[in-house]
Amino acid sequence: MTELTGKIVLGPHRYGKAENRVVRIVRDTDRHEIRDLNVSSCLHGDFDAAHLEGDQGTVLPTDSQKQTIYSYAKEKGVEFIEEYGLALARHFVDDVEPVRSARIEIEEYAWERVVVDGAEHDHTWTRKGSEVRTAAITVEGTGTDRREWVVGGLKDLVVLKSTGSEFQGFLTDPYTVLEPAEDRIMATSLQARWRFASTDVDWDTVYAGVRATLLEVFANLHSKALQQSLYEIGRAVLERYPSIAEIRLSAPNKHHFLYDLARFGVENAGEVFHADDRPYGLIQASVLREDAPDAGITWEPYTGIM
Amino acid sequence: MTELTGKIVLGPHRYGKAENRVVRIVRDTDRHEIRDLNVSSCLHGDFDAAHLEGDQGTVLPTDSQKQTIYSYAKEKGVEFIEEYGLALARHFVDDVEPVRSARIEIEEYAWERVVVDGAEHDHTWTRKGSEVRTAAITVEGTGTDRREWVVGGLKDLVVLKSTGSEFQGFLTDPYTVLEPAEDRIMATSLQARWRFASTDVDWDTVYAGVRATLLEVFANLHSKALQQSLYEIGRAVLERYPSIAEIRLSAPNKHHFLYDLARFGVENAGEVFHADDRPYGLIQASVLREDAPDAGITWEPYTGIM
Amino acid sequence: MTELTGKIVLGPHRYGKAENRVVRIVRDTDRHEIRDLNVSSCLHGDFDAAHLEGDQGTVLPTDSQKQTIYSYAKEKGVEFIEEYGLALARHFVDDVEPVRSARIEIEEYAWERVVVDGAEHDHTWTRKGSEVRTAAITVEGTGTDRREWVVGGLKDLVVLKSTGSEFQGFLTDPYTVLEPAEDRIMATSLQARWRFASTDVDWDTVYAGVRATLLEVFANLHSKALQQSLYEIGRAVLERYPSIAEIRLSAPNKHHFLYDLARFGVENAGEVFHADDRPYGLIQASVLREDAPDAGITWEPYTGIM
Amino acid sequence: MTELTGKIVLGPHRYGKAENRVVRIVRDTDRHEIRDLNVSSCLHGDFDAAHLEGDQGTVLPTDSQKQTIYSYAKEKGVEFIEEYGLALARHFVDDVEPVRSARIEIEEYAWERVVVDGAEHDHTWTRKGSEVRTAAITVEGTGTDRREWVVGGLKDLVVLKSTGSEFQGFLTDPYTVLEPAEDRIMATSLQARWRFASTDVDWDTVYAGVRATLLEVFANLHSKALQQSLYEIGRAVLERYPSIAEIRLSAPNKHHFLYDLARFGVENAGEVFHADDRPYGLIQASVLREDAPDAGITWEPYTGIM
Predict the structure, then answer these.
(1) Nearest 5 degrees, angle CA B269-CA B271-CA B273?
(2) 8 A C-beta contact, residue A96 and residue A60
(3) CB spacing of A175 vs C264 below 8 angstroms
(4) Which of B71, B19, B11, B21 is nearest to B42 (CA)?
(5) In whole angstroms, what is the distance from residue D1 CA to residue B31 CA?
(6) Do the chains contact at A71 and B264, CB–CB below 8 Å?
(7) A177 to chain C: which residues are within 8 Å by CB?
(8) CB B58 within 8 A of CB C171
(9) Which of A202, A244, A279 lies closest to D17 in CB terms?
(10) Keywords of this protein's UniProt record, alphabetized (chains A, B, C, D) (predicted)?
């Protein structure tokens, strides 16, 4: 047994207010707009004394962070969640002395207008889809040391194709009992995060375009494995959007097992499946550019820590 | 303390297989169709000996019910979930001797086709919305004693209006501190269940019409309280659909609290809200016809029991 | 298609404030006590005008109900959740004019004291188990028409036995492929609700006794099916507690499938299982006394509605 | 807008089978033992062709990984989850040619024996607590390049103290409205992960000791902030366990707000609280030794990715 005797010291630390449920209504005209957000803040900085001695002199309460998050929804607006997140992160770094870097994580829930008599309603919506748009904004340092990163993304985009997917020719070992599949259901709940090369981006246009690209490639590619689909999705996104330096994809393989009906004399040619919950395959891949700028601290998760 | 001494007897009992995740693909042409279901079966009947003596002689295994549920997805198809449920319930009552009545509860998850280059894809879909279509089918007895009930419904239909809602003139007591609201956000996650007067119904047309009616009334009615909205929704549904005998509505009042920004010198005229999770108001109402046929055992829940 | 033409009328309706998360600390001495509750209120009464005309004149806001729920946690205390619930329900019926009956549903989360150096800590606890104690209190009418019901209960009591359970001799049909099992794992997440014959009960003693009885019978009975276990549990509870008129039990059969390792030349004599999530068997049974008093409206669920 | 033009390449990638729900019964004597696990595998290696060309020749199916996970529960046993995880990870690296490193993540759910007539039952248990024991085992390389890391941990350990916690003297800014608190409830759902310096550890003894230490420090320390509690917890763990090189702690501050009852003429001296769900403070800190060996790739999460 290895016994260590080195001095015990405080390592990296951070804190913030997680999951502020901000709903912003824009009501400048009779046709209202809605943005429905879940906002988390995370501050790094000179907070050693709070840990070592219980001295809160450099600690801005998480409650103050919460107030700022709500107030900025009006002061700065949330026309683009990326800009709103940048405004918050810059504020914490610039205006709160002990803060060295700030991270803002945002989830946005989509709504769609109710249609009445063929017309979109001015101020009534239903929640749209299970999918969540995400953004993670990191701002570090001041003056010439200032660095800023924006990671766009989405999660819980549940997508399924009923043909155009196979899984064959795989490596086998003594525990391999799986039969090759020439034609199967492929389904996943896609999570994608893409890192921008700068903060000067047409946010909503790129988001819509990346989302459409993900779905187009998933649908149109005849897939030999989820790995191939992920890579081709990532490549297509980077090819179409030079503002994106890198994309990371995580995809559970939501298994749909063909149900054995032959026992009952019933033919089942890819028509009846059991959708299983667990276990699931979990495939993760990244695609990037050779000239991608340094990612710095941007990929450190906060609220999603295991 | 009241002490009872009466004979102890077996009361009502039932059993089944819950949450069978059936996915049915129709692939007769290149343009596939998908129905994604969560199916539960529940049998009532002569199962006393299983409880009293552990004798399984009249008990059809829940595994056999599961097999039937999957097999009927091909044998009978699932063009309409109500017909598929009726086929299953009739089968258990007619073909399994000890069964006196059967209930089939179905949740259906909606999918929408991926659009690529402006065209709907033949075999790729994304999950649509949080909303779930429901059906509960009950079949009781055989021959001239045969009775059948179908309850259609939906749940988790999250809907919000940013104006056109007030709450004023309410009863007050010593614990009342709430201020009247002239203009507020009204949001709910609507659950509705409607009982049909017969089993001869144009299922999908009525479902689409009821759903549209719910949303139309919620959107267009200037609401003095969620109670009023529920009643007007129910009345409109019954007026438009003479095939429906009764409708039950359950609506959590998902509170959106106007955020106090005046403390920071920021005006907030109905623009920034905190969406609170708990507690929530919970409003439930039913609307029915005076000539509604007897509901029998149809409103007894199964998987949703508290 | 049956078309109904009867007059459309308002049916049963009710409302309240659900899921108030009340935490009550008793700190009369250095050894604190904690009660951690989730409280929901439900009022029935003369609220027709709110539905039909939007007139809130008889509607006590759900916010006022919330304030009362928190204030009574101090005014009346929560030594027993059943007494606390009775105090709340009686208050709403007696002190709020339009209310005809009131229902209070309570979930209580158990905590256990942290043990430091062999001694229980005075004011620090950890959450204990997944199990939740429940109570549903219904009070109806005033004066000589007054009726009161208390239903105790628990849910999410996850229990498993690794032997002493079989399932054989069952009815078969053409869809039966299940093999009889001589020795299997039996596991469930037990939900039980028991109706008291009066409100004069030694609440905590009976709760502890019923819980112990549930577990003892589940453990000791060699079970021929979950149905038998439920009945014997119910019978034992009623035999031991003459204050209880009726018990209802709901038990998902959480399947543990013996894993096929023979394919890899590995013996598996009841040692390695896959714990499956869905589907699951769902068994429900009630046991009651022939002299049980009328249950009135007490079994109508509120927050648990399907 | 920054436009990148660099070559697009495949970045880091990995795959595995997540959430295998393995239940292992040891039945060598009448007194059975149970281990209830959720096991995920993750492989890194030469899988480029699967992504770039859809060639599965080096891809061991996730199904084969699943079979191995279940089979090893018997072949190797699960006396200690860390040893079981090491056996699996070593197998994938050593026996599957294209694999360069393997990570096994395990959650273990605790059970406690049912007590009947004062004696622990031989083969019946209830689920114990909400808390989950975790382990993450990483094995990389072969021969002299072989490296192995084990991270122990727990999550969802919900703990609350009703006094002995303050929060005062904090930094203020224009958004600060929080009042200092001299005496408050402090509650969290603790997640801790600790990295061992070697794989030669008395696993269960250390786990029990770390868990007891976490609770003891949380309970006994008069806390000036959650930050201080986390640091003191980490320091105590490292002081007592020289086999541990580093510990990482993540703690949501589960707010309990003192309820304002003065409005109703009711005194509330720290007795009635509202337990709020969201937002919550989120505090994260690490404590480590200056002579801690290199962490390599061990802190990369897999199933917990944001």
Answers:
(1) 115
(2) yes
(3) yes
(4) B19
(5) 41
(6) yes
(7) 263
(8) yes
(9) A279
(10) Oxidoreductase, Purine metabolism
A46, A100 contact by CB (below 8 A): yes
Q: What is the DSSP letter of C167?
A: B
Q: What angle do CA D294, D295, D298 make, to 5 degrees?
A: 155
What pLDDT, on a 0 to 100 scale, did the predictor assign at position B305?
46
Question: Cα(A26)–Cα(A33) distance, rounded to whole angstroms?
Answer: 5
State which residues of chain D have pLDDT below 70: 304-306
**Assigned token pair, B133:** 């279509």
- For the stretch C243-275, pLDDT in tens is 999 999 999 999 999 999 999 999 999 999 999
What letter would DSSP give residue D125? E
Question: Strand C147-161 and strand C186-196: pairing?
Answer: antiparallel
Name the active-site residue from D58, D62, D199, D303.
D62
Question: Is residue C278 less than 8 Å (CB to CB) from chain A?
Answer: yes
pLDDT band at B300 (very low <50, low <70, confident <90, very high): confident
Alpha-carbon torsion A43, A45, A48, A53, what sign?
Answer: negative
- Chain C neighbours (≥3 Cβ pairs under 8 A) are A, B, D
What's the full length of chain C, in residues? 306
Interface probe, candidates A17, A20, A22, A25, chain B, greatest B C-beta count within 10 A: A25
Judge residue D143's burial from the number of C-beta atoms within 10 Å of its C-beta, 0-12 exposed, 13-18 middle, 19 or more buried: exposed
Residue of C nearest to A174 (CA): C264
- What are chain D's partners, defined as 3 or more CB pairs within 8 angstroms? A, B, C
Determine which of C254, C272, C278 to mutate to test the interface with A (most A C-beta atoms within 10 Å).
Answer: C278
pLDDT for position C1 = 74
Going by DSSP bridges, is the β-strand pair D119-140/C256-258 parallel, antiparallel, or unpaired?
unpaired
Q: CA of A121, closest CA in chain D: separation in Å?
A: 31
Q: Which of C32, C36, C157 sits opposite D126 (nearest CB)?
A: C157
B274 is catalytic: no
Distance of alpha carbon C193 from its chain centroid, rounded? 5
Give me A273's structure tokens: 């499946």
Q: Quick check: C91 and C76 in contact, CB under 8 A?
A: no
C-beta of residue A245 within 8 angstroms of C-beta of residue D7: no
Residues of chain A with pLDDT under 50: 305-306
Q: Is residue B304 within 8 Å of residue C303, measured between CB atoms?
A: no
- Enumerate the β-bridge partners of residue A127: A111
Q: What is the pLDDT of residue A2?
A: 87
| Interface subset of A 51-110, CB within 8 angstroms of B | 67, 70-71, 73-75
Question: Active site includes B124?
Answer: no
Please report the pLDDT score of residue D304 as a whole number: 63
Amino acid at D80: F
Residue C303 has what pLDDT?
A: 79
CA-based radius of gyration for chain D: 23
The angle, 0 to 180 degrees and rounded to 10, between the axes of the packed helices B81-95 and B203-220 is 130
Nearest CB to A177 within list C175, C177, C263:
C263
Q: Report which of B206, B24, B212, B18 is spatially closest to residue B109, judged by C-alpha positions.
A: B24
Average pLDDT for chain B: 96
**Model-level pTM?**
0.97
* pLDDT tens profile A36-82: 999 999 999 999 999 999 999 999 999 999 999 999 999 999 999 99
Whether C266 and chain D come into contact, CB under 8 Å, resolves to yes
d(CA C127, CA D153): 18
CB nearest to B8's CB, from C17, C71, C235: C235
Catalytic choice (C44, C91, C254, C255): C255
Question: Catalytic residue at D62?
Answer: yes
Cross-chain CB nearest to B170 (options C61, C239, C302): C61
Chain D CB contacts of C217 below 8 Å? none
Which residues of chain C have a pLDDT value below 50? 305-306
